[in-house]
Amino acid sequence: MAQSSQATGGLSSIPALLQRNAERYGSKDAYREKEFGIWQTWTWAQAEKEIEALALGFLNLGVAEGDFVAISGRNRPHFYWAMVAAQSVGAVPVPVYQDSGAEEMAYVLGHCGARFMVAEDQEQVDKVIDVQDQLHQLEHVIYIDPRGMRKYDHHKLHQFTHIQEQGRAAREEFLPDLKARREKLDYDDTCVMLYTSGTTGKPKGVVLSNRNIIESAKNACEFDRLNSSDEVLAYLPMAWVGDFIFSIGQAYWTGFCVNCPESPETMITDLREIGPTYYFSPPRVFETQLTSVMIRMEDASRFKQWLFHRFMAHAKKVGGRILDGKPVGLMDRLTYALGDVLIYGPLKDTLGFGRVRVGYTAGEAIGPEIFEFYRSLGINLKQLYGQTEASVFITVQPDGEVRADTVGVPAPDVEIRIDETGEIYYRSPGVFVEYYRNPESTAKTKDEEGWVATGDAGFFEEGTGHLRIIDRAKDVGKMADGSLFAPKYVENKLKFYPDILEAVLFGNGRDHCVAFINIDLSAIGNWAERNNIAYASYQELAGHPKVLASIQDHVEEVNRSVAEDPMLSGCQVHRFLVLHKELDADDGEMTRTRKVRRAVVAEKFNDLVEALYDGSTEVSTETEVTYEDGRKGSIKATLELCDAKVVPVNTQKVAAE
Amino acid sequence: MLDDTEGYVTEDGRKIGGVVMEMKNITLRFGGVVAIKDISFDIREGEIRAIIGPNGAGKSSMLNVISGFYHPQEGEVWYKGKKRPGMRPYQVAQQGIARTFQNIALFEGMSVLDNVMTGRIRQMSTGMFAQALWKGKAEQEEVENRETVEKVIDFLEIQHIRKTPVGRLPYGLKKRVELARALAAEPSILLLDEPMAGMNVEEKEDMSRFILDVNDEFGTTIALIEHDMGVVMDLSDRVVVMDYGKKIGDGSPDEVRSNQAVIDAYLGVQHD
Questions:
Q1: Where is the ABC transporter domain (chain B) (predicted)?
Q2: Is the Cβ pair A263, B159 closer than 8 Å?
Q3: What is the CATH number of domain A2-276?
C-alpha cells in the first residue's frame, strides 16, 4: 500500500492533486463552460481558489468529516468543484442522476443519509422539497441557478455563490481547519460514492477509495499517454463512474482541461467548437451522429453524394488498416490522402472529432458497421469493458489491436479469470471497497481475495488474448431443446440497423424465440417524410404496414446471420412485434444508463409475450406510462404480430447423441 | 377601488405597484363599425393583466391602441402619470412598451440570434455606416447588446437554436423567439397577443412558466390577451373582460369567473 502511494508521489487524494496542479499548471486552463454564448475559462489556480472558497463555505455551514454531500445537476464546473470541495473537508460526494424522479432521489438520499445537497436549479430543488418529509437527515440544499428561487424559504436553502462568499469572508477562521482535514486524507479514505442503476433491484451505493480512483486513472492515462494538453468534453451523467474517472480522476492526474457544454441540447455544437482530443461515449451517441450524417447526405447534391460514397468506400477498404499501421499500397495511400482533404477531414471536423487522439466507446456493444465507419475516417476509436465496481477499467483495446467484436486485453494491473460457467472475474487496484450499508451484496460480489464477479459471460480468444463478451451471465439460458439462449447477441444484431432503437428477445425455456422491437423515431420519421407517409404519433408510425415490412426484412436478415453460428442458431426470431411505446427509464423499463430491464419488460408486457407464443395475429393492450413530471397515464393500442422467416437449422443431434 | 398610487400584495407575496397605464373612455371606430366602445381600465406596475373575451370582442384592437398602432377617436391613454399624445408605434416602443404578435412576425430567413438582436435596435445610437464599418463605438455597442440578448436567450432556454434560421423552427419555438425579441428590448410593459394560441398542452405549460418567470425575475408589467380561460385564470392578477367592444367585467380571476355577464358572454344566454 505504501508502495503504490509512493508511485503517485505521495499524492493520495484528489484535493492533494488539486494543490499540485494549481502549482504546476497554475496558468493553464482547467475548466471551461459555455455560458451566454461564450466559453468562460478557469485556470487551475483559479479553480483551486473557487474550490477553496466553497470548502470554507462548507465548513462554515457545518459539514463534518464523513458526511455525504449529494450532487444533482448537469455537467458544470461548479459541480466538479463541489465534489472536490466536499472531499477537501473530509466529506464524501454522492453524484445522483439529475433526471431521476423524486422517489428515486429520495431513496438514494435516504440510503446514504446525505446531510447536504448541491443542486442545479429550481427543478432539482422542487424535487427534493416534494420528498422532504422522507429525508429528515437532509439539512441544507445549495443551488447554483437562483432563477425562480426568490420566494422560497431560505433557512435551509443557499445560493452557491453566497456559500463561497461566506467561505471567503471566514477564510482566516477556517483555513487551518481546512488544511488539517485536507492533509489527513489518505489512500484508504473514500473518494466518492456512486449509485449503480442496476438492471435488477434497488440501486446500490458503490464506495470507491482514493486508491481506486487515482490508481485506475493513473494506469489509464499512462496506457493512452494522456497529458496536460488534452481536452475532454464532459457531457455524460455526473452520477456515472465514467464521468468521474475522466473528468475528475484523469483530469486531476494529468491536469487536462474539462469542457462543459452550454446545455444538453447544444452538446453537438459545443463538441465541434471544442474539438476534444480525448473522447468517450456510449455507442448511442455515435449511432445518432452517423444517422444524422447519412440523413444530411441524402439532401446533398448528386455530385457530392457520389464523391462521398466513392471516398467512403475507399476509406472502408484501407482507412482502418492505415490507422492500425498495417501495410497499405502507395496508390491507396494517395487516394486516402486526397479523400482526407476532400471528405474525411471536413466530415471529422463537422462531427467534432477533428482532433480526437483517443476515443472510447463502452457500456454496450457497438455495431461493427458504425465502429468501422468512424475508424475508417481515421478516428482512433477503441472499445473498453468496465464497471462501476472496477473504477471503470477491466479490459481495453491497445492502439493497433482494435476490433469490433472484442473488448481488448486486461487493463494495466488488472487480473482476469473465467470460471467454469463462463462468468468473468477480475481483481485490480480499482476494485471497490464495498456496497454502502449492504454487506450481503458486497460478499456476494467480491470474495476475500478481492475477486469480483462481473455477472457477464465471456471467453478469451485463442491467439490474440482478447476478451469477448457473450452476454449477461444471468440472461444466458437454455431453450426447451437444450440449445443455448443468448438474447444480447441477437438483440445487438437487430439494434445495429439504424431504424431499430431497441430490441428485447424472449425464449428462455421455450421452443422458439420471439422479439419486441422499438423503432428509432428520428430515422423512421425521416424516412416517412421522404416517402410522404403522414403520421400523427409514435404509435401510428410504429404500426405502419411499410414500417413493419422493413423491420421484417431486418429480422429475417438477422435470422440468416444467426443461423450461421452453430451454437446460437436456435435463437432465430420466429415472431415479433413493434412496440407502441418507447422503452423508458421513467417507466422503469430501462436503467438511467439506458440498459433494458429484461425482467420488468417481460412482466409488464406479459400479455404481448403470450400473444406472440399463442399464434394470434393481433393483440389489444393497455399500458401505463409515466410522464417526466411523475404523473401517470395510459395508452391503448392494437398491435400486429408478425411472422418472420427462419432458416431451418441443420441439427446434428443424432450425431451428437 | 384601489388608490392610484398605492399598490397591493398578491396572495403569493408579489408586490404590485401603482397605476402605470390608464385607458380612459377609449372609443375606436373603423368607419361605421365600433370596435371599442367607451372602455376604461388601468394596468398596475408589476402585475399580469389579462384582456379576455369571445372572438371579435375587440381585444386585439385594444392591444393595438396600447401599442400606438391604432389611434382611438375618443378617449385618452395615460402612461406613467402623463397623458400620451398621438404617437407612432416606434415612439411607443421607445417608451419601453414591447409586444409580440398573434400571428408571429419574425424575419424567417434570419437566425434566432439576429432576430432577437433586432429587439435591441432602439438602444443603438450609431448609424448604419458606423455599424457597417464596425469600429469604435459601434463595436462596443454591439458587444453590450449581444450580452443582453445572450441573457435573454439563456433565460428562455433557446441556446440550442441560437444560430438556426427561424423559418426552420416549429411553431412553439417561434413563439418563444418572439417573446425573446420583445424581452431583449428590456421593456417596462410587455404586451402579449395570444401567446398560447395554437400550442399543445406542454408548450402552453412552458410558455406560462416563462411568462411568470419574466414577471417575477425582471418585475416586468405584462398585459396579455388570451383565449384559453384556464391559462388566463392561473396566470393573471386581474382580468378585463370584453364583449362586442364593451367592457363587461373587470377584477380578480375569481370575481370575473362569478360575474353573470361574463358567464353569459362565454356560454351564451338562453332565450325563452
A1: 21-269
A2: yes
A3: 3.40.50.12780
